[in-house]
Design brief:
With 245 residues, the protein is of the alpha/beta class. It contains 5 helices and 13 strands. It has one domain: Metallo-dependent phosphatases (Purple Acid Phosphatase, chain A, domain 2). A 6-stranded mixed sheet has the order 4-5-6-7-9-8, covered by helices on one side. Strands 3-2-1-12-13 form a 5-stranded mixed sheet, with no helix packed on it. Helix 3 packs parallel to helix 4. 40% of the residues are buried. Keywords: Hydrolase, Iron, Metal-binding. Belongs to the cyclic nucleotide phosphodiesterase class-III family.
Length: 245
Amino acid sequence: MIVLAHLSDTHFDGGQRSAARAGQVMDYLHALPGHLDAIIVTGDITDHGLPEEHEQAEKVLRSSLPVHTCPGNHDGYTPYAGPLNSEHDLGEATLILCDSVIMGRDDGEFSDETLDWLAATLAAAAEEKPVLIGFHHPPVDVHHGLLDTINLGRRSQERLAALMAEHPKVVALLCGHVHSAAAATFAGRPVLMAPGVTSTLNLPWEVSGELTWKNTVDYGPPPALAFHVIADNGRVTTHFRWLPA
């Protein structure tokens, strides 16, 4: 059995608030009495992709546990040499993290380079191990009129679905971007979206009047995260946790 902590959208901006909220999550994880295998951060680690924001993130997210990250759209506001794709051996499972960033834009796509890399990595992954694929932009609608315009593009969704059809060892997709604890299905697999550390997304039926970014981003709720448990049979169970305000 593997236990993974999944957090997302820390949005380090050099200020105290984002650092304090992410620090609260890390302190909580480090104080857990039971075993944790790794920490995954699915993008928007920084708010503008600036060097000082990355330095702050590296300091706060430092851990004796393995910390595996992929970028989000906010990380791509400052161009970097990419794509930042990576594969990680979790012992009883394989974690593949993909870069879905389009530099300077909020919507997401997988580049041809990333798709070719993902195809080769899946083909080479051990058949006996379940595989989790993580990236920032969810490949599904979350039924939010603003967010659904900046999720993973249709072309990438089609290519990803085709790859997953070839590889039944993929047991789940892990995403961020939504700032809401959410779950859906894509190509017959669960899509598990981590809540936001820095803020929470108000849903359309929770908002009065016209839906705008101003009234849909809520900084009041406490930081939250997800735990994913991968059983020996490859089945994934997810628990969400909100930390004390």
